[in-house]
Write the structure tokens for this entry.
Amino acid sequence: MGYDICEYCDLESKTKSARSSINRHIKNEALKPKEQRGPHPGVDDESYIRTAERRRFHSDAKSMPERMKNNSIRNAKYRDKRKLQDDKKVEATFKKLQ
């Protein structure tokens, strides 16, 4: 299964960011009433929840404290990654000096 094809209606995206456009398509179809969405599952259906987990859907923060918490988690991941890169550079320079 590619991320550029909707698994429910076989809509194929040919855009540059195909995965995000298909994700948006699946989310928008899930919000529609049952008569209008066709083969797509609703927001509360089990298959939609599995798809959301597999495709890693995310939603915007609903409040400022939630946004700040998300930012702190993201910044911590970036700091850790950056620290590993810096440690590798220091270690390589140290070995070169020896």
